[in-house]
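For the sake of transparency, this paper describes our internal protein records without simplification. The tokens are whole numbers drawn from a learned vocabulary of local backbone shapes. One such record is reproduced below, unchanged from the form in which we store it.

. . .
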Amino acid sequence: MIGYAQLWSADPAAWRTAGSAWRGLLGLADRRTAELTGTAATLRADWSGPAGRAADGRLHGLAAEVTASRPVFIEVEQILSGYATQLARAKAMLDATVGMAAAGGVRVDRRGVVSADPDVIRPDPLSTGNQPDPRTAAAVADVADGIRAALELATIADLEAARQLADLAADAGGGWAGPPPTGPPPPGTDPALVGRWWAGLTRAQRRWLVGHEPHRIGRLDGVPVRDRDQANRLLLDRQRTALLVQRGALLTGRITPTVPAEVARIDRTLAGLDVIRDRLSVDTGPRAYLLGLDPAGDGRAIVAIGDPDRAENVLTYVPGMTSDLPTVGGELGRAETMAARAAALDPTERTSVVLWLDYDAPDFLDEAAATGRARDAGPALHGFQEGLRATHEGPPARQTVLGHSYGSLVVGSTARDHGLAADQVVFLGSPGVGVDRAADLDLPAGRVWASAADNDVIRYAAAPDELVRRLVLSTALPGVGPLVAFGRPADDLRFGADPSGPAFGGQVFPGRSDGHTGYWDAGNPALDAVARITLDGRAG
């Protein structure tokens, strides 16, 4: 059992730093692999015969072993980071309990022994001795229980981290396995079936797949978050290198009219990849997990702030129009903001916020005026949410899915057409969600939430010509034009009834008038409401 003094003096940041050092070994492994393969190529040119072939095979074997070790470095970092997160949570519980003690007339000594503070003790009026009153006695018991819970949490985390590291060391001592007898199921397979297949593999076989086939494992719903994160981190480096090679080839080849545009696209994609890579390297705050990545076209990414498999609360955020890999920084910032607000409201609860940018969001108004992009996104969002359910450890998490702008249509259409593994949904700044009633989302009306700022222009755009009409009217009437034109939003929006209107039948929470993208601004009541809904299903 971890003691009171141990937990009080524990430093979660030191464990994160240690994990970062292990993650840094990836660069060393890459350099050693390049040296081995380069040496093999040099020898192959000048050394033939059985001895030369044996040397070549040995060098390539060593390179393969180094390559196989790369997922292990990430796994050690995951274990240490996860331990640091739990340790920080236990310390937050301890701090809160000690603060409660000070306010309740309870004393805690250096060993964690709890007693009534003699300087503020309130005698029991029904007792002949100097016994504390029942309220003080209850406060002493509550503080003792709080300290005990914090120490138990830290102890469980310590034992779990030690077990995971011991298992990893035992696997390394036994060598690395080859490929499993059966390969990964195809994309779109029921996540529950994928989970059973994954569970049937040995740990060594899973690491082989992560290291050798990250493109198949990283996006497979039903594979645990930690394994997907390892695969996609490895894939990020490969994809970035491939884009740099492609860019160099374009610039050194024959310049055609399409080359500048393609180079510019690659540069924007590389900038997005660098934003993600930088966030994955952050050693403060909650760890980021990379659950999906595709640089093709506008690019796609799934990034979780905190581990969804171990969180009590999971919020999946689906952004709207113009969201893509080059602009991922802004959307990732919104996910960070929601995670930070939830943590501030309840630091003892583990909350993970997932940026789900795994669909081709509209780039232009004509694309955003149609339902095709939302319809196409449905199977992927459905599968992802089912995967979160399948891989979650312990009791089921409270799962919330939030759609902003066109993303709200993605969420609503998915719930309508495929079903959505969510306990509740939230719509912000919605142009309509594909249904006219909350009940059509196959969720209780009390679990459907919405908010729209008074000055969010999307509320006045039931159709493009409606917005034009209002703009013309606002300029045609001197003085009162804007009030007449924009005084009352449309009852029916582009894609159905306004989910923040009374006819829809959902729960509405207020927000400040900060426009279409101000819901995440500091001090906006909508931000607090989203965090509270994520934590306990209530907006206030």
